[in-house]
Amino acid sequence: MTDALIKLAQDLEWLGCELEYYGHKHAMEGFPGSGPTWDSFLEKQEGVLMTAEKVERELKDSVRYNPSLLVGIDYPLKAAIEFVAVLLTAVEDIKETALNAVQDLPSKVRDFSRTVQDQFGTDGRKRN
User: 3-class DSSP state for residue 125?
Assistant: First the structure.
């Protein structure tokens, strides 16, 4: 589960930065309502939203099936659920930003990715 979450967080960071790039490029072109930049922007936006939804499903499934995998066996269930709540809140913020303020997206997706990376080691296990 954690390996999948790390991968999704990395994908979300990449897509979020790409979306901001195309948003900036679209703005520099005068915000045309069609064209290749606009189409690329919409494609990247959809990718961010779809990946964010995958992250949400992964997190919700972890709570449903085995939340201790998120924080390690030595941590109480409450800590695991609180961690999932923090991540779910961050994902909601990312989705909202992808729709309304893409210029703020790179920092949010990087913070999310770092939070996930900091929580888990490179092998997907809880860091001590």
Answer: coil
C-alpha 52/C-alpha 56 separation (Å) is: 6
Model confidence, pTM: 0.80
Question: SS3 of 7, please?
Answer: helix
List C-alpha distances in Å: 79 to 47, 55, 70, 76, 107.
30, 19, 9, 5, 25
79-97 exposure pattern, b = at least 16 Cβ within 10 A, e = fewer:
ebeebbeebeebbebbbeb
**Position 79 confidence tier, pLDDT thresholds 50, 70, 90:** confident
The C-alpha atoms of residue 67 and residue 61 are separated, in whole angstroms, by 8
